Amino acid sequence: MGLPARGRLTAGEREEQVSFGQFVLAYVSGMCGLAGLRHLAMASPGGPWNGRRARQTRGGPAPDVRPALPRSPETGPDLVRYTGRRPAPVSVALPETVLEGRSSLQADGGCVGQVTIRAASCRGSAHMRDGKPRQDAFLVSASADGRWIIAAVADGVGSTAHPEVAAQAAVAAAVRLTERAIGPGGLGPHGWEPIFRQVADEIGDRLAALDGAAGNPRPGRTTLLVLLAPADPRPGRTAQLAGVGDSPALLLRPAAGEWSLVLGPGRTSGRVQDDVTAALPPGVDELRTAALEWRPGEVLLLATDGFANALGNRSELSVALAAEWERPPHLLGFIRDVDFRRATFTDDRTVVALWPGTHDRRH
Fold first, then answer.
1. pLDDT tens readout for residues 335-357
2. Does 233 sit behind a cis peptide bond, omega within 30 degrees of 0 on the bond before it?
3. Does the N-terminal or the C-terminal CB of the chain have fewer CB atoms within 10 Å?
């Protein structure tokens, strides 16, 4: 038999090309693990475990090997997590600040010592509709000696000018200043206040440098939550937290499906609830601190209220995430979880989650 004509594929080559394209689609779509395999199985003729190649009849036409048509959201695996009542669709307007390096989505993951970290920040549908930038921010780092994890989450107050700038300035200053202040045992009991005062000053300086910021009656404001945690969380070692505003620190015990509030508004109730928030600058007088001994099997989370308020009390979302976050998910799956869709919950949402006693391994 001669070679196929240039530019044409044999049936076997077409099948290989289709199968590889379906695999890439399943992976990139975030359908990781079983969900991705399910997508591939339902799209591939005969399923990926069939092992049989399409037969080509000698002298006859090649078999019709075509990828499955895209399925509707009602029948196919969702690329978006819906929870509760589905919201109405919104037109997505791209904000101008994307050109300045502040994207609508920020995410990262990996491990520091014996702690696995996942972090994601997503623009909410209200800001999508209005063409406003994401006003949440996060930053995660490790100390120079690798013994400590430093993480910060901030939520710019949308009713003020340039809240996204205030949030970015807050997390950058908080992580840098916290690392400088670390002592042999972390931070002392009064170590957080000078850090937050200097952060407030740096936010003010950053906002003052913006064009048209001088004399603005509502200059930028932001919440701030900071974590200093050991990278080797052995018994007796504590994670230390400090915050201003309504961005909470949460503790998830997946085995019990239990979410509890470690630091934030409404702490005495043990549940997450909204509150009128304090913010930086100035806001340092509203500083809250906490420390906890962090054990394997517990997930420590820093979040903004756009995520925390949607959890509710034994809601569909809280039950589903408690099960899925028993172990660190793939980063694409974590982004999907944080970027959920639920009617009336349209704010930006940010989560930094830490699993102790685990090591991030990917295949």
1. 999 988 877 788 899 999 999 98
2. no
3. C
Instruction: Write out the H or E segment, with its range, that includes residue 241.
Output: strand 238-244
**pTM as predicted:** 0.73
Compute the CA torsion angle 69, 72, 76, 77 (nearest 10 deg): 120
Q: Give the CATH class of 96-356.
A: alpha beta
C-alpha angle with apex 244: 240 to 250, nearest 5 degrees?
A: 50
Q: Are 121 and 107 in contact (CB under 8 A)?
A: yes
Q: Which helix (H) or strand (E) holds 118?
A: strand 115-122
Cα-only R_g, the chain = 24
Spatial contact of 271 and 261, defined as CB atoms under 8 Å apart: yes
Domain ranges (residues) in the chain: 10-77, 96-356
Q: DSSP state, 224? A: E
Torsion angle in degrees (nearest 10) through CA of 326, 330, 333, 338: 70
State both tokens at 127.
């800001």
pLDDT digits (tens, 9 = 90+) for 276-302: 579 999 889 999 999 999 888 999 999
Strand 238-244, strand 224-230: pairing: antiparallel
- The SS3 call for residue 291 is strand
Contact 109, 338 (CB under 8 A): no
- The answer to whether the peptide bond before residue 281 is cis (omega within 30 degrees of 0) is yes
